[in-house]
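Hallway conversation turned thread

IA: we were arguing at lunch whether anyone had actually written out YCII-related domain-containing protein end to end. Turns out nobody had. So, for the record, here is the sequence (119 residues) and right after it the structure tokens. Reply here if something looks off.
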Amino acid sequence: MKYMLLIYSDPQREPTYGTPEFQAMMAGYFALTARLRDDGVLIAGDGLQGVETATSLRIRGGKVETMDGPFADTKEHLGGYYVIEVADLDAALKYAQTVPSASYGTIEVRPLMVYDTPA
């Protein structure tokens, strides 16, 4: 089953870029990515640019509206993701707890939808 590990964190709580703590965090991400790849469960994964680069879109009353920034105004921002394929939720949670940001943010584990395509 495929799961997405959505990585949320509060930028105010993240290690500052260029510090030893930031380097340690990134080393943790590189190690996790290598482990997921070596275990044969990694489908995809990337970090996202900051919320200040986001554009949100919605359609209301037949009109397209766009706005700068993320749709939700929260302290924690979606900063990246992994898509993994594992046997079950328990396996996905074991990997999720190794995401470096879990110690100061939130990792949302969500199964991907599987749509049957018409023949």
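OS: looked through it. The first strand starts at residue 2 and ends at 9.
IA: good, adding that to the notes. The mean pLDDT is 90.
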